Amino acid sequence: MAQGQSSNSNTLVVPQASQALEQLKYEVAQELGIQIPQDGYYGFMASRDTGAIGGHITRRLVQIAEQQLAGKFSR
């Protein structure tokens, strides 16, 4: 890796969305019955659980985007 570059390529296009995504993560985890560690360390969580949370977040974000697009084109 080049010097000065971050190893995290998941940069948010809208930095203010960070809090909304964090809230969505907790909502999805609660719906799935998965406890998110309070200390923020995910190392003891099963990959299946973290993947399930991420997958459901993606589905929900796609659903929200589809609804917004449908609303724009129906006018």
UniProtKB/TrEMBL annotation:
Q: Name one Pfam family in it.
A: SASP
In terms of InterPro entries, this protein maps to: SASP_alpha/beta-type (IPR001448), SASP_alpha/beta-type_CS (IPR018126), SASP_DNA-binding (IPR050847), SASP_sf_alpha/beta (IPR038300)
Keyword DNA-binding assigned to the entry: answer is yes
Q: Which UniProt keywords apply?
A: DNA-binding
Family named by the database record = Belongs to the alpha/beta-type SASP family.
User: What is this protein's function per UniProt?
Assistant: SASP are bound to spore DNA. They are double-stranded DNA-binding proteins that cause DNA to change to an a-like conformation. They protect the DNA backbone from chemical and enzymatic cleavage and are thus involved in dormant spore's high resistance to UV light.
Name of protein? Alpha/beta-type small acid-soluble spore protein
> What organism, scientifically named, is this protein from?
Paenibacillus baimaensis
